[in-house]
Amino acid sequence: MTHLYLVRGLPGSGKTTFAKTLADHRGPLYAADDFFETDDGYVFDAAKLAEAHAACQANTRLALERGWSRSVVVHNTFVHRWEMEDYIQMALETCSLFTVVSVYDGGLTDEELCARNSHGVPAHVITRMRAQWEHDWKNGDTRAPWERK
Question: What is the pTM of this model?
């Protein structure tokens, strides 16, 4: 049986480092940020963010459906429950186990997170994400904001 791990946390909190440790010798590691990796390094394009998340979800679904490994690890910020919901449904549909691991802020301030994150996320964006963080994700709304009435 495959186990899906969703690693969530603010930018710079250590999601990728923890996810790599978790995935080591167990299975594939995916993130929406993978979409923006090029031969020239990381090139973020906000206009392609939905496409990046769709690609991450497609890779994850394929790995879960094919049962390629004992585990699949996805590391994204996952500030809200609705951002994890498609992955949770994939796990249920493929009879996979799933675990959500939150590294939240790694004990760091927004300024420290800003200095540590590898994708140049500014402190004011991290501050906004922190303010919106759903600590109790299990009771969060499963619907995307545009689907709510």
Answer: 0.94
